[in-house]
Design a protein that fits this description.
With 217 residues, this protein is mainly α. The protein folds into 2 domains: 152 residues, nmb1532 protein domain like (Four Helix Bundle (Hemerythrin (Met), subunit A), Up-down Bundle), CATH 1.20.120.520; 65 residues, no CATH class. It is 79% helix and 0% strand. It contains 9 helices and no strands. Helix 1 runs antiparallel to helix 2. The radius of gyration is 18 Å and the shape is globular. It starts with 5 loop residues before the first helix and ends in a 6-residue tail after the last helix. The protein binds fe (ii) ion (2 copies). The site of one fe (ii) ion has 6 residues, from helix 2, helix 3 and helix 4.
Amino acid sequence: MASPLDGIRFIHAAIMVEAAHLDELAAAARTEQQVMEFHERLRFYENLLTIHTNGEEHHVFPLLEGKLPRSVQTYLFDHREEEEIIRRLERLATPRGGKGPSQPDLAEAARDLRTHLSLHVRKENELIVPLLGELLSIPDQRTLAGALMGEVPKEMYPALLPWLLQRLTEEERVGYLQMVRAGVPPQVFASMAPLVRSSLPADELAPLIAAIPELRG
Ligand SMILES: [Fe+2]
Ligand SMILES: [Fe+2]
């Protein structure tokens, strides 16, 4: 059964899947139209990464600093580097008045973001998440997971859940939804079920419904 802290691992998994998609899209972008499509997708991702890093900086890092002073500097350093790469990507993906895409710079920046995130996310998964597990009781882990979810603007929920589910493996989807089910009142989980059902094709939904019958319509 997933712990409340696994929410961080699930969002990290989706972040890495999307970083790989963006890397591939940027490498293949040859026309203005393709760069515009890349840019559209980058905007949602940027927004989500900002919410994610803000959540860590507002809730996870202060908690760790309180218990282990100076333990989060390296992660903050990574976050500033991440912002720098995203600013570069944003600049390169912005239309240049018919001059065509800035290849190969765009592809290089997307690759840099993927490489950077892969190391950062691995460090957080392998060092920060287990540390939080040691330092926090299960109720405190739930409070933290709630605070991290609280960073997501309400209007983003309908787009975020499909985005997340579509990027997770079947096993991760089941783990994520079981974790949510354990953390919210039954009526709240029931109200999410229609959005879960509309997020995935029928063949991918079937195993989720088999594992979590509350998702059935
Ligand atoms: Fe982070
Ligand atoms: Fe993270």
